[in-house]
Write a structure and sequence with these properties.
The complex is a heterodimer of chains A (503) and B (95). By secondary structure, chain A is α+β, with helices and mostly antiparallel strands. Chain A contains 17 helices and 17 strands. The chains are: A alpha+beta (503), B alpha+beta (95). The interface between A and B is large, with 54 and 36 residues.
Amino acid sequence: MLDLSFETPKPKVIQGAAQDWELVIGLEVHAQVSSNAKLFSGASTTFGAEPNSNVAFVDAAMPGMLPVINEFCVAQAVRTGLGLNAEINLMSAFDRKNYFYPDLPQGYQISQLYHPIVGEGEILVDMGPGVARRVRIERIHLEQDAGKSIHDMDPHMSFVDLNRTGVALMEIVSRPDIRGPEEAAAYVVKLRQILRYLGTCDGNMQNGSLRADVNVSICEPGAYERYQETQDFSHLGTRCEIKNMNSMRFIQAAIEYEARRQIKIVEGGGKVDQETRLYDPDKGETRSMRSKEEAHDYRYFPCPDLLPLEIEQAWVDDIAASLPELPDEKKARFVTDFGITEYDASVLTAEAENAAFFEEVARGRDGKMAANWVINELFGRLKKEDHDITESPMSAAQLGGILDLIAKGDISGKIAKDLFEIVYTEGGDPAGIVEARGMKQVTDTGAIEAAVDQIIADNPAQVEKAKENPKLAGWFVGQVMKATGGKANPKAVNEIVAKKLSS
Amino acid sequence: MSIDIETARRVAKLARIKVEDEDLPALAGEFNTILGFIEQLNEVDIDGVEPMTSVTPMRLKRREDVVTSGGMQDKILSNAPDAREGFFAVPKVVE
């Protein structure tokens, strides 16, 4: 059994004017399901298409059109649930959430209020080596996404694109187990990582594939522990919901601002109103969305167009059998199998593709050295050009080849870096390049001795000084390295210089 | 449950149906008649009875994850009162 033990982080404490306050945070993450077609229609989900070209008559809510569920989207939700160790409900059902908005032609969103497809699960949110917060998941339900309104193309009109209308979303609802802005961001990072490992959501926040609504309240130190013991919400403060955030930075800034706003109200003798708020990144503040409040009477009722969704345990088991190794297990395995630090393992497992690349480099080689080269050299180089691992011009076999040359003593660490650059920019077989360009380390002591003798003969004054002060031997080593174009084995040079100077 | 005039007004507003003030009492009355009729169902004891979702034993129909529709911007926009550059153009809605 892999060791997944951890310590729980301390909650964030904010000092008010009068006393200390703690934060209680819960998130609702909307994750767009990775699929070809929409949840209830055969229109494409491709991002960035011509406006209103990925729209079926079902999405446009033409009269008489009926929704037919995309089975793959259901499988993706189940897969996500299994990846979060959650309960899968073999019977779930769809409800209508009624409201009017131009980007929702049906006048209702098909969602799952009463019987979600996924029940309780959990996520381990990493806060540093050996420190993690266990966050409970309350539920995941399937629902339709809305279209997109553009408000800045005309002073008097809004422009509506229904391409996103009807794309499948998973709403992933956490319990209020998150205790600070950093934890909230780390929660989204971890959730995104798991979804990407599972292949159920691409996690592209810029394109809106992952968006978070954040519930924030404040409480006095100790109150949260009373809530956890009793699960009685009355121990907690009144919460506000900050809608629709699509960046980790904004999530943190919005929570920080919102907590201070609530502290100010409560310390001033006021009461926090439960409401929906919007974060304004330009001003760095949240503001009330009163208009939304008024319309918040959704009159949910079971969708008469859709029978309950019944799935079979055998089908769920098949999906479970196809799950990949997930980040927590992979990280723990990397630490054990390759002898690398937990920190390095976290970096390497951040993306499944990175982890696979590292594993190929590390297999049969020194794990620490492989981690070092993948993280510092390769990731560093890729980052410089804003590339990710899938765009790497260097394959795992090529990098492995360089490491083999170092291990064999064919090249020094310094030459290896030059070789890395050549292979990265020009491609080719590392061993072949070393051979063809004469980059092989000189381990032949005869050749090194000759070079040392030459330097000693040319610099009699330095030799005298070095005999009095052995530290000056470094100068000779440097000269020899220079004379051999850096190819001399540094260890051999050191030994020979020391020997010659003391004779 | 009984619907008063204010509730009738609210329901009309949520449904985006314009109802004149003088028509509200009659509307509320009709609601109450309908609800009263339906309330008779509460007299039936349904403890332990599973909700019937269909009169025939049917399984929810599924589709495969294949793109079978789309690419008809002109048809989608053909009923729009106003459309520009491929978008529906509607009176400004801003939060």
